[in-house]
Amino acid sequence: GLATGTIITMSGHHWLMAWVGLEMNTLAIIPIISTMHNPRSTEAATKYFLTQAAASAMILFSSMINAWQTGTWDITNLSYNPAHILLTAALAMKLGLAPMHFWLPEVLQGSTLTTALIITTWQKLAPMALIFMTLNNLSTTTLILLGLLSSIIGGWGGLNQTQTRKIMAFSSIAHLGWMITIASIMPNIMILNLMIYMIMTTALFSSLILSKSKTIQDTTATWTLSPTLTIMMMILLLSLGGLPPLTGFMPKWLILEELVTQNLSPTATIMAMSALLSLFFYMRLTYTTTLTLSPNTAQTKFKWRFKPNHMTLFMGTSSTVSIFLLPLTPLIIQ
């Protein structure tokens, strides 16, 4: 259901098909969120459903008034002004861009780590595809403002969190902010950023799933499970924060470079500053994971050595890509 929904949205040129794909996406993930059968996951599923249904309705409404005005249901022909303003708002709500981001941390907190991974990666593909297809008609100023706000709020919101899922939610908001800022200037950098973000998030969530780390406190016991995994997590977190020799620096570098080229230096400065906020909470996670020993008593039960499974292989490949890709930047840009 999830895959079909995304593919339908990405491949069609008709607004109704885009809407059908988004609806399939939403309806397919609702049971996945509520599999836990506890009040918190039910609440998360309800919150997710309400926001996504409202956003889908707005998308349908914007495409209808556009079709009414222009006489065409073609996605690439979104020329009516109120329609594209509505669409921008709806897609921002679907993605969880600030100021429509409030549902994302709540929903992630109510779902399992695996479900959180799906929501932060796969569920972003369809709305991003729609943004990519309608870029020529969307307002650049609005997108940049949304992006700026998202990167600031994504950095600020994550500062006082102790739950790894909420931290990842705010990290998602901040990364999406970077993507949206560059969207109307250089769409190919947006796609590159999305791909790298998805690989890095997958790698980090895989390590959190392997070590069963739901809170910052849990990460302190990762070293007992696997010292290698601990070091991997440290480098992955720094890569997500965008530190230079790692892959995560590549999109940030290209985006800042492009913003300066377009004479948007103030925007670039604010974005760079907001990245420092994000970096702070990644650094805090890094610190607890690798540089501290959790307060132990002799009776503490350690999680000692896990059995290898398919997750470890997946984790290995995604981690490698999300750490060592920076030297390939010149190849990707050409």
From TrEMBL:
Enzyme class, first EC level, given as a word: translocase
Transmembrane segments: 16-36, 48-65, 85-104, 116-135, 141-160, 167-185, 191-210, 222-243, 263-283, 311-333
GO cellular component: mitochondrial inner membrane
Domain NADH:quinone oxidoreductase/Mrp antiporter transmembrane residues, every copy: 14-277
GO MF annotation terms: NADH dehydrogenase (ubiquinone) activity
Record field: catalytic activity: a ubiquinone + NADH + 5 H(+)(in) = a ubiquinol + NAD(+) + 4 H(+)(out)
InterPro entries per UniProt: Complex_I_Subunit_2, NADH_DH_su2_C, NADH_UbQ_OxRdtase_chain2, ND/Mrp_TM
Enzyme Commission number(s) of this protein: 7.1.1.2
Annotated keywords: Electron transport, Membrane, Mitochondrion, Mitochondrion inner membrane, NAD, Respiratory chain, Translocase, Transmembrane, Transmembrane helix, Transport, Ubiquinone
Keyword Electron transport applies: yes
Membrane topology field: Multi-pass membrane protein
Role played: Core subunit of the mitochondrial membrane respiratory chain NADH dehydrogenase (Complex I) which catalyzes electron transfer from NADH through the respiratory chain, using ubiquinone as an electron acceptor. Essential for the catalytic activity and assembly of complex I.
Family: Belongs to the complex I subunit 2 family.
Protein's name according to its UniProt entry: NADH-ubiquinone oxidoreductase chain 2
